Amino acid sequence: MGYQEKKSILLAITQVLLTIGYFWHVAGQYAALAPDADLLLFWAKTIVVMVPVFMAGHITALIVFTILNKQITGESVPKFQDERDKLIELKATRIEYFTIILGVFASMVYVWRGDGLTTMFIVLITGLVLSGFLTQMTRIILYRLDA
């Protein structure tokens, strides 16, 4: 298993763990909301905090992975990407953007139907999180198919 595959597996696992942990926390906060609380403010804060938390989690996981991978296997971070790596990256990015667009569209459909602000933000956040996970799964699958 190559460096890129191992990195993608780690990032997919990190994405799942961050999602579970963060939404466990958000569910607790949502349950404790006052009945007259401003839902738009709550969900805006949730997304604004989610982005740096997920970024910090992924960066931390990558740093730990790079250090441990170097110590265990002696394998360094690849200095360049060949054409195959670039093609896999482009295909994964296409899946990521497509998933984000579908998530935004689906969240707008829920607003249009009148399902409420909470449903819209849950669908939107789910689309964002799912896009990150599907990106890593696409990379793993494409590296496996090419191996």
**Which sequence of SSEs, written as H and E, runs from N to C?**
HHHH
Helical fraction equals over 70%
Number of strands: 0
Main beta-sheet strand count, sense and barrel state: none
- Compute the average pLDDT: 92
Number of helices: 4
Strand content: under 5%
Q: What class would the helix/strand composition place it in?
A: mainly alpha
- Amino- and carboxy-terminal Cα gap: 9 Å
Which ranges are low-confidence, i.e. pLDDT below 50, for 5 or more consecutive residues?
none
Radius of gyration computed on alpha carbons: 18 Å
Shape: flat
The number of domains: 1
Describe the structure in your own words.
The protein is an all-alpha fold and 147 residues long. The protein has one domain. Helix content is 85%, strand content 0%. The chain contains four helices and no strands. The longest helix has 35 residues. The mean pLDDT is 92.
Short synopsis of the structure:
The chain is an all-alpha fold and 147 residues long. It has helices spanning 3-31, 39-73, 83-113, 117-146.
Topology:
Elements: H1 3-31, H2 39-73, H3 83-113, H4 117-146
Helix pairs in contact: 1-2, 1-4, 2-4, 3-4
